[in-house]
Every structure is written in structure tokens, then in C-alpha cells.
Write a structure and sequence with these properties.
This protein is of the alpha/beta class. It has one domain: 3-Layer(aba) Sandwich (Protocatechuate 4,5-dioxygenase, Chain B), CATH 3.40.830.10. The protein is built from eleven helices and ten strands. The strands form three sheets. The protein has a six-stranded mixed beta sheet with strand order 5-2-6-1-10-7, sandwiched between helices. The protein has a two-stranded parallel ribbon with strand order 3-4. InterPro entries: Extradiol_dOase_DODA, Xdiol_dOase_suB.
Length: 276
């Protein structure tokens, strides 16, 4: 007999009375997936404060592909895409269902590029470390969209806008990365909190531009000076932010949470976009 969760994952989604918020979450260390700390507690609280989603779609910094892909299997596996962490982290399973029909609908919404149906990936730690705190019962379908590493920031920002209709169907779209992410410059002495001057400066600049709806400057982040180059030595952790911004509607407000630097050169600053 099919479970209620699986039935939910294999039927079409209907229009909702509320527009679902959009989130960008600074995910930081994979250990946040199992630790009870200030970040994970905020994720758990967020899961109770926003409307219950019909599905969750995650754009994670940790799934890079040539072309744009979406997970389309019934039950995505839990991927442990890291090394050097305690066995307890590798033992975590997050058995949320997928939603193949939603994956197909997503592909039909996107007109700017082909969206390939993927049956091999699953949920990487950029997805499950967050979602397991928000929805610990694993009873909401979770999908991932890959980041096409061959495309520039403008591509990702514009692609996101084509997914806006899913917000009307109660789908929570969640970008998972970090605004400032430079592991080569990390300081273990500052791992529990603290940022270099340049880290705090550029993170505040990013927040200012988000608050002012100056998304063009954020798309063209390479023009923001040397601090931006240091904050984004490679773009994969920054691009999920552009997906979140690309989904902002005219009536949405922006707020920030988990606004903290750790390790000197990484920020956990997160963004909520929602109708007041």
C-alpha cells in the first residue's frame, strides 16, 4: 500500500491562498546538520513560522553540473559529500520523498534553457543539513536544482524568475550557500564567531544592496571591488543567493537572520523574502 507521503509526492500541486516565502540560508559546516546551535535552532524555528510548504526545492552550492538538472526520482538518497567529520554525521539519513510531477512541471516552466530530469543525485549536505532541522519528520517532498557551472551569474538570476509560479503553489524555494565563503583564509581561532574586517565590510555591502533592491550590482559582483573577489573566490556558494533574489516579487519584504561571521572568512547571513 502506498504511504500518504508518497501519494503527496506523486500528485500535482494546487494554487494556495498565500504566496510562499523564499529563503537563502548560509549553511556553513556540515556539522550544523546534527548540532544544536544558534544556526540550527533558527532553521528549526523558521520551519514553524512560515507556512507549511507543499514541497521544498533547494539550489545547493554542492551540486554543480553542465546544464541545468532537477532531481526527479521518487525517493532521493541522502548524500554524504564530505570527509573528515565524525561518523555520526555520515550515519544521518533524511528519507524525504521526491516529487517527479513537480520536477516535470518545473522543466515546463523554464523557457530559457532545457532542464534535464536527474535520477542519480539525491540530497547533498547543502540540502539535508538544513531541511532536517526545518522539517524533521521528512514528510515533505524535497527536490534539488543543480547549478550550471558553465553559466554566469545573470543566467542563474534570470532562471530563478521563471520559477515564480511555484511560490503560488506553496513550494518553498531555498538557496543554500554562503555570501562570504573563502575556506583558504579561514581562521580556526575564530571558528566560533568573528570575521576579518574585509569580511564584515563586504557582507554589510551585500546586505545593503539586497535591502535597496540593487540586484544588478549583486549579479555583477565582480565589480564590487577586491573584498568581493576575496569573499567569492569561486561562485558556487554565492550563486544560490541570486536564485533567491530572482524570485522576489513587487510586494515582498526582505529580512535577515543568522547574521554572523565565523572562521574569519565565512558568513552565515541568511535572507527571507516574503509578503508582509
Amino acid at each position: 500500500m502506498e504511504s500518504p507521503i508518497f501519494k503527496q509526492a506523486t500528485k500535482g500541486l494546487e494554487l494556495q491562498s498565500e504566496l510562499m516565502p523564499v529563503l537563502f540560508i548560509g549553511h556553513g559546516s556540515p556539522m550544523n546538520g546534527i548540532e544544536d546551535n544558534e544556526f540550527s535552532r533558527t532553521w528549526a524555528l523558521m520551519g514553524t513560522e512560515i507556512p507549511r510548504p507543499s514541497a521544498v526545492i533547494v539550489i545547493s552550492a554542492h551540486w554543480l553540473t553542465k546544464g541545468t538538472h532537477v532531481t526527479a526520482m521518487d525517493f532521493p538518497e541522502t548524500i554524504h559529500d564530505f570527509r573528515g567529520f565524525p561518523p555520526a554525521l555520515n550515519e544521518v539519513q533524511y528519507p524525504a520523498p521526491g516529487n517527479p510531477l513537480l520536477a516535470a512541471e518545473l522543466g515546463s516552466l523554464v523557457k530559457s534553457t532545457a532542464v534535464f530530469q536527474d535520477h542519480d543525485w539525491g540530497l547533498d549536505h547543502g540540502a539535508w543539513t538544513i531541511v532536517r532541522h526545518m522539517y524533521p519528520d521528512a514528510n515533505i517532498p524535497v527536490l534539488q536544482i543543480s547549478i550550471d557551472y558553465t553559466k554566469g551569474p545573470e543566467y542563474h538570476y534570470r532562471l530563478a524568475s521563471e520559477l515564480y509560479e511555484l511560490r503560488k503553489k506553496g513550494v518553498l524555494i531555498l538557496g543554500s550557500g554562503n555570501m562570504v565563503h573563502n575556506l583558504r583564509l579561514m581562521s580556526w581561532e575564530m571558528i566560533n564567531g568573528g570575521g576579518y574586517d574585509w569580511t564584515l565590510h563586504i557582507n554589510n555591502k551585500f546586505k545593503e544592496l539586497i535591502h535597496d533592491n540593487n540586484f544588478g550590482a549583486l549579479v555583477n559582483y565582480k565589480s564590487l571591488g577586491p573584498e568581493a573577489q576575496m569573499a567569492i573566490p569561486t561562485p558556487e556558494h554565492y550563486l544560490p543567493l541570486l536564485y533567491t533574489l530572482g524570485l522576489k516579487g513587487p510586494k515582498d519584504n526582505v529580512s535577515f537572520f543568522n547574521d554572523k561571521a565565523v572562521g574569519g572568512s565565512l558568513t552565515m547571513t541568511s535572507v527571507k523574502i516574503s509578503v508582509p
